[in-house]
Structure formats: structure tokens, C-alpha cells
Amino acid sequence: MPTPAHTSVPRSLVLILRAMLVLAAAGSLVVLLVILPLTWGDMADGAVSVAVAIVTILALGVVCLQVIGVCIWQLLSLVLRGRIFSRAAFRHVDVVTAAVAGIGVLLLAFGVVLAGGTVAPGLVLIVGGAALLAFAAALTVNVARRLLAQAVERDAQARRLEDELSEVI
Asked: Is there a contact between 66 and 33 (Cβ–Cβ < 8 Å)?
């Protein structure tokens, strides 16, 4: 196995990002354990099917965000080890892409639920715009994955050329 390359990303930056991920994870647990049950209680007077749909969509959205956080944590581990330009990163980037696209689908579902009620049409359009942005973000992550694949291939090619050159010398 080749020795890991030195990373140009400062360790302090990785630690700051990880601290932010820990705060986001704590906040997401508060949402799941406190805010959503309170939301459910507030909606108990209305239609149960709408309440179930909204709370379920919100909970699944939080879970998608948690999955993204875990994947970013794993990618940061690869950065620290100097292995971000490896095939190991693809799995995490693919999961991030799927989770962001999942958020887009959930936002569309949320818009559909809102459209069936007495919510202002402008709010439904805002949610639709947010879904469009989520899909755009998923496509952007997909582009980054393709660039990562290209970088991994070029790195492998450079290693092969170095090996050939060292054999010649």
C-alpha cells in the first residue's frame, strides 16, 4: 500500500469542521427528540394524516442531514490520512449525493402536503424552489465526485509513471 500523501488542509480546519458537525448532530437530536414531538402535539387538533405526513417528512429530512454529517466526518478522516484522493472516498460521496437528492424528494412531498391545505401558494412555491436547490446541490456533489474520480485516476497514473521511471533509473 502506498504511503499517504501529506495533506495541504490544516488540521485546525478539520477540527473546526468536526466541531460544527458535532453541534449539528446535537441540534438534530434535539429536533428529533423534542421539536418533532412538540410539533406533533401542536398538530393533534387537525387532520391526523397531514400531521403524520409532515412529522414523517421532517424526521426523514433530519435523518438525511445526519447521514450527510457522518459522511463528511468520514471524508475528513480521509483528508487527515492523506487518502482523500482514493476510491474509499467514492462511497461517502455517493451517499451524500443520495441523501441530498432524498432531501429534494422530501421537500417535494412536503410541498404536496402543504398544497392540499390552506397554506398560501407562495409558501408552496418556496418549498418547490428549495427542492430544486436540493436537486442542484445533489448534481453539484455528483460533479465533484466525477472530478474526484478524475483526480484518483491521474494520481494512479502518476504513481505508475514514477514506478516505471524508478525502474529505468
From this structure: no
- Grid cell in block for residue 142: 455528483
CB-based contacts of 114: which residues, under 8 Å, 6+ apart? 123, 124, 127
Give ∠ CA 9-14-19 in degrees, rounded to 5.
165
**Residue type at 17?**
L
C-alpha cell at 133: 436547490
CB 156 within 8 A of CB 86: no
Kindly report whether the global pTM for this prediction surpasses the value 0.90.
no
CA atoms within 13 A on the CB side of 129: 6
State pLDDT tens for residues 63-111.
Answer: 999 999 999 999 999 999 988 888 899 999 999 999 999 999 999 999 9
Query: What is the distance between the alpha carbons of residues 88 and 78, in angstroms, rounded to a whole number?
Result: 8
Residue 57 grid cell:
417528512
Q: Do 102 and 64 touch, CB atoms closer than 8 A?
A: yes
